[in-house]
User: Which sequence fits this backbone?
């Protein structure tokens, strides 16, 4: 790159190209040095983030040990999941009175405050993970619970109440809870200090247990 | 380049300031005050390192403390001074209290479900906020009351060497909070068992749980309570507060007789409605 020899063309219009000589293609492959995202079409910008979110969802559904879900965090997935679950879980006022279930805002508070508290606990114990990475992982690992909420809702709509359906719903939310805890343990266990792993993992267990109880006790 | 600019542009070696930037979070050897020890550099309370000193504990130690809180004679006589006093942690109290809040709320809903006898889950989600208020108030107020009574009534002007086991000793507020937090651990399995709808069993659980953890509390605090003028009041106060907490939760959320009368009421109203319909129909 020879900046000294670049000439500015002062002819009729002063519009010039902002690209560095050599073209944009050369730089796109380098990590983090994408100078040309101003020029790309919006579709490409949005699709890049969508692809990142989609990869993370896939990684949660099929957790593997060596995984770089932690490297680049984003909070889109957790937001979508939280909104979806809060919309379904909120109490319905069909009888003109509150049926005792959580409000939309209460589910939001539980999910986000819970993720923040678990993250702070992990950092206080000496964990080596950054704040937002941890919140990102905990949020994405809600995916199995979102799926089990969907299954429960479908069961409720299609069939009438009975012990068998109740047991099925319990099974679905139990499976979601186990999967979510397993996934988050796999992602987070290496960043915890060695003698305190159980201390850092127990709050995650409690967090997903509470959310799966919310899923299981939703009966409308 | 000339030598003058070469000097300016060359790397300079500075003294190693690594020591002055270090923050020591080792537990101090004597009873900790609320601010950091004079031997370690002062860490601002806006930095996370300040709070890390309250979480300086391993899994094995936490398990040990929980077990000690359930078996009355298991802890050594100077447990307060040598163990809790030296390294009080906030991990145990915080997470045991949180677990207890949610166990009580979930079991309370389960008990209500079992008492109503239909598949509609009448869950009262706001039990969580009521339960949490009670428990947090208990863990914060009781230690404060005990600590202030001890501070007010124990005379520390003994001349003996403070490192002797028999020297007068007042635990710090943090150690008492830690002790109270761990003493709630026995109520977690007890609150799950409270959903079994047998009244006699529920009372046995209340008495057993309150007795076990109450006696641990009194045993551990005894070296300091002995020195106080108000020792009898303290012992009675601690034991009764503990018992009232357990009995209160059981009676409010899980107790059987109140629900059986409710059940009878609903059956009676149902029959009245049916007979009214039969008459009009």
Assistant:
């Amino acid at each position: 790159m020879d900046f000294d020899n670049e000439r500015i063309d002062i002819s009729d219009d002063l519009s010039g190209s902002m690209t560095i000589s050599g073209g944009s293609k050369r730089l796109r492959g380098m990590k983090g040095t994408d100078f040309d995202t101003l020029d790309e079409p919006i579709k490409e910008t949005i699709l890049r983030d969508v692809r990142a979110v989609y990869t993370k969802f896939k990684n949660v559904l099929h957790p593997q040990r060596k995984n770089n879900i932690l490297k680049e965090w984003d909070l889109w997935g957790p937001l979508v999941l939280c909104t979806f679950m809060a919309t379904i879980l909120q109490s319905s006022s069909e009888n003109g009175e509150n049926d005792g279930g959580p409000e939309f805002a209460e589910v939001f508070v539980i999910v986000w405050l819970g993720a923040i508290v678990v993250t702070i606990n992990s950092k206080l114990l000496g964990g080596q993970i950054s704040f937002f990475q941890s919140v990102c992982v905990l949020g994405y690992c809600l995916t199995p619970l979102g799926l089990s909420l969907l299954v429960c809702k479908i069961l409720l709509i299609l069939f009438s109440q009975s012990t068998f359906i109740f047991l099925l719903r319990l099974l679905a939310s139990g499976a979601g809870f186990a999967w979510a805890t397993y996934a988050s343990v796999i992602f987070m266990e290496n960043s915890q200090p060695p003698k305190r792993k159980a201390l850092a993992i127990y709050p995650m267990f409690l967090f997903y247990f509470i959310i799966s109880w919310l899923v299981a006790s939703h009966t409308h | 380049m000339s030598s003058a600019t070469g000097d300016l542009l060359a790397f300079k070696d500075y003294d190693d300031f690594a020591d002055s930037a270090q923050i020591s979070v080792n537990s101090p050897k004597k009873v900790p005050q609320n601010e950091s020890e004079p031997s370690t550099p002062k860490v601002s309370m806006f930095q996370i390192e300040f709070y890390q000193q309250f979480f300086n504990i391993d899994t094995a130690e936490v398990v040990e403390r929980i077990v000690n809180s359930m078996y009355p004679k298991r802890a050594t006589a100077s447990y307060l001074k040598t163990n809790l006093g030296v390294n009080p942690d906030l991990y145990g109290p915080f997470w045991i209290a949180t677990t207890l809040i949610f166990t009580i709320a979930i079991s309370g809903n389960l008990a209500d479900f079992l008492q109503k006898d239909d598949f509609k889950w009448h869950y009262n989600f706001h039990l969580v906020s009521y339960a949490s208020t009670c428990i947090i108030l208990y863990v914060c107020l009781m230690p404060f009351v005990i600590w202030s009574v001890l501070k007010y009534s124990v005379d520390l002007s003994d001349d003996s060497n403070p490192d002797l086991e028999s020297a007068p000793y007042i635990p710090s507020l943090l150690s008492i909070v830690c002790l109270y937090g761990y003493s709630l651990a026995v109520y977690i399995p007890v609150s799950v068992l409270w959903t079994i709808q047998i009244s006699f069993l529920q009372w046995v659980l209340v008495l057993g749980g309150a007795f076990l953890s109450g006696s641990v509390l009194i045993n551990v605090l005894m070296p300091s309570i002995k020195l106080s003028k108000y020792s009898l009041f303290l012992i009675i106060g601690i034991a009764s507060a503990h018992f009232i907490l357990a009995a209160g939760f059981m009676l409010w959320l899980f107790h059987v007789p109140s629900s059986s009368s409710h059940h009878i009421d609903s059956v009676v109203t149902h029959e009245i409605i049916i007979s009214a319909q039969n008459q009009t129909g």
Q: What stands out?
A: Confidence is low (pLDDT under 50) at residues 22-30 of chain A. Chain A has eight helices and no strands. The CA atoms of residues 9 and 15 of chain A lie 9 Å apart. Helices of chain A lie at 25-28, 42-61, 76-89, 104-124, 131-140, 143-158, 163-188, 197-216.
